[in-house]
Amino acid sequence: MTTNTASKRILAVHDLSSFGHTSLMAFIPIMYRLGIRVCALPTAILSANTDFPNPLWIDFSGQIEPFSDHWEALELRFGAISTGFLASAEQAELVGKAIDRLKQPGTLVAVDPVMGDQGSLYSCFGPPLVDAMRRLVAKAELITPNFTEAALLAGADPTPRAEPDEVRRWCQAIAASGPEQIVVTSVPTADPNQLEVLHYNAPEDSLSRLPFAVSPGHKPGAGDCFAALLLAGLVNGHSLPTSLKATVRIMSRAILEELPPGADWREGIAMENMIQWDLQAYYRE
Prior knowledge:
With about 280 residues, the chain is of the alpha/beta class. It is built from 10 helices and 11 strands. Strand 9 and strand 10 form a beta hairpin.
């Protein structure tokens, strides 16, 4: 997998949760720490991430096309386009059209199909978003669903656990629509103290497995950080296996990092600590 690295600039199509280490608030610092410029397209603006009660929410769908118009007028070029949380099925269609407009030869499209977790859709979504997300991932070379999202994309039941061969069949079904590289996170194993990350390479029909750290409690923004680190490795010219191994190692450390005194777990991982680490070193090892 190669990217257009003539300009290390990415388009990040994610929500902006003003308080908390999630979405763009996690994505942007990671990218700059790894030497990559960011052009941000908020899909929604929230007063705080959704782990806090009653966040204010502004849907940014109406600005996607005007922003795209301006970037075309500026002749901006992107090494990669990354999408995350989308506010609705209708917005997913708008984002797909923006990708069609802004993608250039060599632009890597990476989709994190944020829809649900723990075996179900998030409460703010319904079946139309799943259908729209299937159409969006068809435009991507790389997707990073969690275990639940992979099942939903494949039209399977997101059971509490599935054998690797079953997950492979899910990935084969998803890859038939377009994405060649599928990285499935938070995959349960027979050991309750162990999760895995699975990488399905469609051209080779191969499945690799990497163990992942388990830490009690919910870790807001961990998926956003994972997607950012993986994409950063690719934009910086590393292979997908190298980028994935580095991402797993960084995130395994990050989710075990203690929060500063007085910090609320709902803010997410200790981002202020993580971005001071020598992240580049993880990709060289």
